[in-house]
Design brief:
CATH architecture: 3-Layer(aba) Sandwich
Structural class: alpha+beta
Number of domains: 1
CATH class: Alpha Beta
CATH superfamily: NADH Oxidase
Helix content: 25-40%
Number of helices: 5
Number of strands: 3
Distance between the termini: 35 Å
Shape: globular
Strand content: 5-15%
Radius of gyration: 18 Å
Length: 180
Amino acid sequence: MDMLDLIQSRRSYRGEYLPEPVPREDLRKIMEAGLGAPSGCNKQTTSLIAVDDPALLGRVKAVIDPPVAQTAPAAICVLTQKIFAYRDRCFQVQDYSAAIENMLLAVKALGYASCWYEGHITDEDRIGRKIADLLGVPACYELVCFLPVGKAASAAGPPPKKKPFVERAWWNGFGKGESE
């Protein structure tokens, strides 16, 4: 698949997954894509944990409330560290966001489905820390995202409605069209 087609066709998948294991070779490729993302001042603040052991994955899913991806056969947990890169700047959010997007594209390219779950993982109820504790993650890391990985049991829904290009992208200044 052409890269631009891959980008345009990727969708968040929130449905059921087929009960087929994801080979570790594929999980590794997905994680390598994530770790290949750019990182502010090359501080490499993003780390990853693949979870494919069914019993452990069940325990991880049990602490996620509201429940998500209950039938996913594997998941990748995204960790970050706050490391100052330039003066008082830390680029951890940009770093892990780039890594997650790379992984979502790799997931699609390999024929799997996923969804970026971050909001209620990092909410006040500290689900991310609960998952991190199950996985033995040191306190200096924050678990910020849960990415289920598996074969979709059903087709993804219709693409989300996007604002037209001309409402969000311009040429040579804010609000300027191509012909200006």
